[in-house]
Task: structure prediction
Amino acid sequence: MKKLFWITERQPETPLSRRLVSSGVLGKVVLAFVLVPLVDLYVLFVVAGRIGGLETVALVIVTGVVGGALAKVQGVQTVRRLQYRAARGESPSRELADGALILFGGALLLTPGLITDGVGFALLLPFVRPRIRSALSSYLGDKIQRDSVVVEVGGRSE
Result:
């Protein structure tokens, strides 16, 4: 039996596209996808004006390479911890959350820009992730308690 878990906004009777538009989530996502690259580009130009264009390009390349290596190391360590906890019959929820944060941090490091690189590096640092995990857990817990998020469980036999 295959089980699926997902989180949706409360209003299961309306299609997802309508819920995203009516809740303002779509506008925030579009704003983030437009605003973040523009700010990142502005910061790149400012830095290039101060240290030089080639040096700025080198800095972006170095942050990508170093970040990729760090993401690999952190990812492997997290998978090992996950396997260890699962083998002992313990819940690997912390490791799963860490894995998601590492994946997101690695994705941010792939985008050229100094702001996204800074956030990506922060997500890869083991002493920063617990704080972010805690903040996300509190945020989602509050949303679930206010019934603005519903966790739906479904599945079908194949």
Notes: The radius of gyration is 19 Å.
